[in-house]
């Protein structure tokens, strides 16, 4: 029966499998469609499928040899047709594979030119989106944003014939938001597409992400959306998206399209103080470029600033002209050099951050540059540290980046400690409350310790307990009794995966690092079914690495 299928039927089936996330099945089916198109003498369609196969094999199955082979096949078939847009599709595939940004930009420009000659809307939309991201990453911010806005306008007008083009533009827009650390444009397009979608329709994308903060735009790539939540400090949403993206990859046995969600989940685990989990997550992915920042953040958290600085400097050198893409690495590099007691070297990274912030005019970038400048001034005990840190906290707040705003407030309180103790205490208390609310245990611990240095009781009780649901309280009790996830699942009549999710949620909400800490916490605060409101003494909780 399979042999009797037409080329169109096979191609349509392959596209459907792709939307159902059966990427391997889609590749197999569309490979058969390619052969059928070629057998029928339809070289244009065969060449387009060959390009598609190349673009899927490279990122999702990490097969460069096969991807190169299919691209060469597409070029051979292109010579047998006068289709003007085919070289453009091949050029777009080359742009996605290019390691040099100049070459990638040139390939995208060529693809746009060919698309417009042939009036190929899908090629134009995808090439404009990729070109826009590359230009922003390289510092051509205004031009890059214009290209992406144009691609989104074409999508909103219903010009895309292939809904994969819509999804890819969504992904590019999320990349832009993450690069700039600013979700404003993303939110504006979300609102616009929500209104337009009712009349235009986005096929398989409709109905997805209805409960997510970014609507259908988040459905195409959970890793991108999770990364955007992470960079803007929305940690609960980030965890949900990233765990979902990891489950998708594992359940469908496929690679990742852009940034691996494991690396972003690892950075989230560092923020939560779950360092061993972060190390375990990153163990198999240390060779990925996107693993550099989470690895460096982990290095800093465990007291290895020299290792953090070394890996960051190597990656920044590799990025070359991608100045905007280097910005988040530079921000961590400042912290590494300050931890090493080298403010003069940190100032070099700050200078580059200021330059990028001037180009992007991103509120996030401006705030990060102010924060870095304030931290350097504070280490050098200069008077301008206080106004700089105060302005950084204000700038982060205006950009709706809560975590960094709280970190700036804690740094401000440290700078004020010897000149205005009451204000220092007020700022530190506010930071501590926010850290506990966000679930960032190491930051909360640091704020509480600083308050104790000021002679003030840092924590008045386990305020995060009220965040637990009744089911999560049950899970906490069972963890305290030493039950494994499988045993918890059996006791509560739920799946092992659901039990694991509950355990992770309890640890996150309580700011705990391990099941051992959860057991110690429960022993102190759970009595006869009621929560005890008592402060945890440092000696009652095992070290962060304890299991």
Keywords:
547 residues, mainly alpha, two-stranded antiparallel sheet, 2 strands
In short:
By secondary structure, this protein is mainly α. The chain has 27 helices and 2 strands.
General description of the model:
With 547 residues, this protein is mostly helical. It has helices spanning 7-19, 23-39, 43-60, 64-78, 86-97, 101-118, 121-137, 141-156, 163-180, 184-200, 222-231, 235-252, 261-271, 275-282, 292-301, 305-319, 327-339, 343-360, 363-379, 385-398, 402-416, 421-438, 441-453, 470-480, 485-492, 496-510, 515-525, and strands spanning 526-527, 530-531. The chain has a two-stranded antiparallel ribbon with strand order 1-2.
The SSE string, one letter per element, is HHHHHHHHHHHHHHHHHHHHHHHHHHHEE
Rg for CA atoms: 26 Å
| Number of β-strand runs | 2
Our measurement of the CA-to-CA distance between the termini, rounded to an integer number of angstroms, reads 56 Å
Portion of residues in beta strands equals under 5%
Strand order of the largest sheet: 1-2
Q: Which word captures the global form? A: globular
Helix content estimate:
over 70%
Mean pLDDT: 85
Largest sheet: 2 strands, antiparallel
List the total number of helices.
27
Uncertain segments: 207-219, 528-547
Category from helices, strands and their pairing: mainly alpha
Which SSEs are present, and which pair or pack?
Elements: H1 7-19, H2 23-39, H3 43-60, H4 64-78, H5 86-97, H6 101-118, H7 121-137, H8 141-156, H9 163-180, H10 184-200, H11 222-231, H12 235-252, H13 261-271, H14 275-282, H15 292-301, H16 305-319, H17 327-339, H18 343-360, H19 363-379, H20 385-398, H21 402-416, H22 421-438, H23 441-453, H24 470-480, H25 485-492, H26 496-510, H27 515-525, E1 526-527, E2 530-531
Antiparallel strand pairs: 1-2
Helix pairs in contact: 1-2, 2-3, 3-4, 3-5, 4-5, 5-6, 5-7, 6-7, 7-8, 7-9, 8-9, 9-11, 11-12, 12-13, 13-14, 13-15, 14-15, 15-16, 15-17, 16-17, 17-18, 17-19, 18-19, 19-20, 19-21, 20-21, 21-22, 22-23, 24-26, 24-27, 25-26
């Amino acid at each position: 029966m399979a042999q009797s299928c037409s080329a169109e039927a096979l191609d349509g089936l392959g596209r459907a499998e792709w939307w159902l996330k059966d990427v391997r099945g889609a590749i197999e089916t569309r490979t058969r469609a390619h052969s059928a198109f070629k057998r029928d003498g339809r070289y244009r369609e065969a060449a387009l499928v060959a390009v598609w196969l190349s673009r899927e094999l490279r990122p999702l199955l990490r097969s460069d040899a096969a991807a190169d082979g299919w691209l060469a096949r597409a070029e051979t078939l292109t010579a047998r047709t006068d289709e003007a847009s085919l070289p453009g599709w091949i050029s777009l595939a080359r742009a996605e594979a290019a390691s040099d940004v100049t070459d990638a930009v040139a390939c995208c420009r060529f693809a746009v030119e060919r698309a417009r000659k042939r009036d190929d809307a899908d090629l134009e939309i995808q090439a404009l989106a990729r070109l826009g991201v590359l230009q922003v990453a390289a510092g051509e911010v205004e031009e890059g944003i214009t290209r992406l806005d144009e691609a989104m306008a074409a999508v909103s007008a219903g010009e895309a014939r292939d809904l994969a083009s819509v999804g890819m533009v969504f992904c590019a827009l999320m990349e832009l938001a993450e690069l700039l650390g600013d979700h404003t444009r993303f939110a504006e397009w979300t609102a616009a597409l929500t209104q337009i979608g009712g009349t235009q329709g986005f096929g398989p994308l409709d109905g997805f992400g209805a409960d997510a903060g970014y609507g259908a735009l988040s459905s195409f790539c959970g890793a991108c959306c999770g990364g955007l939540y992470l960079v803007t400090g929305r940690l609960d949403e980030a965890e949900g998206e990233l765990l979902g993206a990891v489950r998708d990859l594992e359940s469908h046995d496929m690679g990742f399209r852009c940034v691996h969600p494991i690396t972003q989940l690892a950075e989230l685990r560092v923020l939560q103080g779950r360092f061993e989990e972060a190390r375990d997550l990153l163990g198999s992915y240390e060779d990925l470029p996107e693993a550099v920042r989470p690895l460096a953040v982990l290095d800093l958290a465990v007291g290895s600033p020299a290792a953090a600085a070394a890996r960051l400097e190597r990656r920044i050198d590799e990025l070359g002209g991608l100045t905007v893409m280097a910005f988040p690495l530079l921000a961590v590099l400042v912290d590494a050099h300050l931890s090493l007691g080298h403010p003069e070297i940190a100032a070099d990274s700050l200078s580059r951050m200021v330059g990028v912030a001037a180009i992007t005019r991103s509120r996030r970038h401006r705030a990060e540059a102010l924060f870095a400048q304030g931290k350097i001034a504070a280490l050098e005990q200069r008077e301008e540290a206080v106004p700089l840190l105060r302005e950084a906290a204000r700038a982060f707040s205006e950009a709706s980046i809560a975590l960094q705003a709280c970190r700036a407030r804690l740094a401000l309180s440290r700078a004020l400690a010897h000149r205005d103790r009451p204000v220092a205490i007020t700022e530190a208390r506010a930071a501590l409350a926010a850290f506990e609310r966000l679930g960032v245990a190491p930051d909360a611990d640091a704020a509480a310790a600083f308050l104790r240095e000021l002679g003030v009781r840092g924590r008045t009780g386990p305020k995060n307990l009220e965040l637990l649901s009744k089911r999560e309280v049950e899970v906490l009790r069972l963890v305290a009794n030493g039950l494994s996830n499988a045993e918890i699942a059996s006791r509560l009549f739920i799946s092992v995966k659901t039990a694991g999710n509950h355990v992770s949620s309890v640890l996150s909400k309580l700011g705990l690092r391990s099941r051992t800490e959860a057991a110690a916490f429960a022993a102190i605060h759970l009595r006869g079914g009621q929560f005890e409101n008592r402060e945890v003494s440092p000696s009652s909780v095992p070290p962060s690495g304890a299991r």
